[in-house]
TrEMBL record:
Its EC number is 2.6.1.-. Keywords: Aminotransferase, Pyridoxal phosphate, Transferase. It is an enzyme of class 2 (transferase). CDD domains: AAT_like. The lineage of its organism: Bacteria, Pseudomonadati, Planctomycetota, Planctomycetia, Pirellulales. The keyword Transmembrane helix does not apply. It comes from the Bacteria. The keyword Cell division does not apply. InterPro entries: Aminotransferase_I/II_large, AspAT/PAT-like, NHTrfase_class1_PyrdxlP-BS, PyrdxlP-dep_Trfase, PyrdxlP-dep_Trfase_major. GO terms for biological process: amino acid metabolic process. This is Aminotransferase.
Amino acid sequence: MHPWIADRTKTFDSSGIRRVFDLAAKLKDPINLSIGQPDFDVPEAIKEASIEAIRSGRNAYSPTQGIAPLRDAILAEVREKYPDQERDVFISSGTSGGLVLSMLSMVNPGDEVIFLDPYFVMYPALVRLAGGVPVMVDSYPDFRLDPDKIAAAITPQTKMILVNSPANPTGVTADQADLKAVAEIAAQHNVALLSDEIYSRFFYEGEFYSPAADNPDTIVIDGFSKSHAMTGWRVGYVHGPPEVIATMLKIQQFSFVCAPQPAQWGALRATEVSMQANVDEYRRKRDFLVGELSPHYELTSPGGAFYLFPKAPGTAGGAAFVEHAISQGLLIIPGNIFSRADSHFRISFAASDETLRRGADMLIRLAQESAR
């Protein structure tokens, strides 16, 4: 390694998803079930709001905390949900920016951060970037958030519990009772509770529930990337205890500075645009794929997001199965990118009906081949 490179960069590798895309680059007309973003476009009203912002000269830095109308709109929603809590909000450079700032604001070297395995690919890397120690709690085979396992993982070095519901890569939604129990565990041990709620609007059964309802010190990260297909616009938001938010803002001043101002005006318009029709469409896509694949694969039906996380057939493991699938023209992601285990793979059903049909047919064929 080059002598100038900092030691902290040696604690994690580049995302393994890159290797999948390197393999995929050789394919013609692949069946792409790998993309972790919506397949619908940003609504026109949101585009127009950002275009108007650009044309009217709103192209400079915004305040670090975000433009006032967007903050006010989000804060009004937050206060309606949590009327008895003192919470502040700021606009982050995407939810990934919010995660980075959360780790840098709260995690000291040697602090432990607890989260479920499988996990969003950034979690271990960001914990290590802050000098922390990832503590991964096994959630196989059903990917449930088990409060007893969380409680058992707590040590004197525990600083944070990180929950993600609906989850990437599994799509599983945590039960309200389990989230409530974890919220109480965090409060009991005086441990930070960070709730990654970027898929909160992709919730297919019942009502979305946040642990912030039971723990007023919960730090919540959300945004517009997934719900409104604004992944490239980099507009997220974080709300939580004012002192924690102020610390995150201090770091944002000297790092991201602010989210892109024209995109923030688009996000303001997004707060008024219902995406329920798209959510209903994704529920239908989920039902189709689960119905097609469940006779052939061991899988848990996702309650949210737009992912399935089936177990690979046969004994070769998830990575080998994915390499074979890619050789047949099907793009999926190996589960060991999101886990210490190499047994599963991730499918995204954020794709056209035709692509899902072709993908399901291919996966059924691959399962049948493995059974021979």
